[in-house]
Amino acid sequence: MATNIKVPVNGEKISMQGGKLQVPNHPIIPFVEGDGTGPDIWRASVRVLDAAVEKAYSGQRKIEWMEVYAGEKSLEVYGANEWLPDETLKAFDEYLFGIKGPLTTPVGTGIRSINVALRQELDLYACVRPVQYFDGVPSPVKRPQDVNMVIFRENTEDIYAGIEWKAGTDEAEKVRGFLTREMGVKKIRFPDSSSFGVKPVSKEGTERLVRAAIQYAVDTGRKSVALVHKGNIMKFTEGGFRDWGYELAKREFGAVEIDGGPWCKLPNGIVIKDVIADNFLQQILLRPTEYDVIATLNLNGDYISDALAAQVGGIGIAPGANINYVTGHAIFEATHGTAPKYANKDVINPSSVILSGEMMLRYMGWTEAADLILKALDKTIQQKTVTYDFARSMEGATEVKTSEFGDRIIANMD
Ligand SMILES: NC(=O)C1=CN([C@@H]2O[C@H](COP(=O)(O)OP(=O)(O)OC[C@H]3O[C@@H](n4cnc5c(N)ncnc54)[C@H](OP(=O)(O)O)[C@@H]3O)[C@@H](O)[C@H]2O)C=CC1
Ligand SMILES: O=C(O)CCC(=O)C(=O)O
Ligand SMILES: [Mg+2]
Question: Which positions of the chain have pLDDT values less than 70?
Answer without folding.
Answer: 1
